[in-house]
């Protein structure tokens, strides 16, 4: 079965985004893959990367010009308390809260945020409600 090795986010400021996610979740940076246009973190069995705009040319891609969410990241945590604590921490680090922590109709507990670049993300607990 194929495995997802990285999910990458394009950003004009890879240092700011790397600092935000690294500080928020305590992810360890994969220093071996650090370049002037890329930062990466080990993120629980996969990697989270940040690409500077120069990576578009390297990859043969063209930046999308139309607005709107196309993808968002979901980060699982160990408890509802951790969802609440990380949501508060994200706000302190410059995130915008879209939805405060809530229980979904399928029983998970999560918050929805936007990182400092405006990318959507969720902080999620999918265990038994407390």
Automatic annotation (TrEMBL):
Superkingdom in the source lineage: Bacteria
Classification via CDD domains: PsjN_like
Annotated VOC domain residues: 3-126
Pfam families with a match to the protein in the record: Glyoxalase
PROSITE patterns per UniProt: VOC
Gene3D superfamilies: 2,3-Dihydroxybiphenyl 1,2-Dioxygenase, domain 1
Name of the featured protein: Glyoxalase
Species, as recorded: Sphingopyxis macrogoltabida (Sphingomonas macrogoltabidus)
Lineage of the species this protein comes from: Bacteria, Pseudomonadati, Pseudomonadota, Alphaproteobacteria, Sphingomonadales
């Amino acid at each position: 079965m194929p495995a997802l090795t990285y999910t990458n986010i394009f950003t004009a400021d890879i240092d700011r985004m790397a600092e935000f996610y690294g500080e928020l979740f305590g992810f360890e940076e994969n220093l071996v893959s650090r370049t002037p246009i890329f930062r990466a973190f080990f993120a629980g069995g996969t990697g989270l990367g940040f690409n500077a705009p120069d990576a578009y040319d390297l990859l043969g891609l063209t930046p999308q010009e139309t607005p709107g969410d196309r993808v968002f990241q979901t980060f699982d945590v160990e408890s509802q308390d951790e969802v609440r604590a990380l949501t508060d921490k994200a706000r302190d680090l410059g995130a915008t809260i879209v939805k405060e922590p809530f229980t979904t109709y399928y029983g998970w507990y999560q918050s929805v945020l936007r990182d400092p670049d405006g990318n959507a993300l969720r902080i999620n607990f999918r265990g038994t409600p407390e």
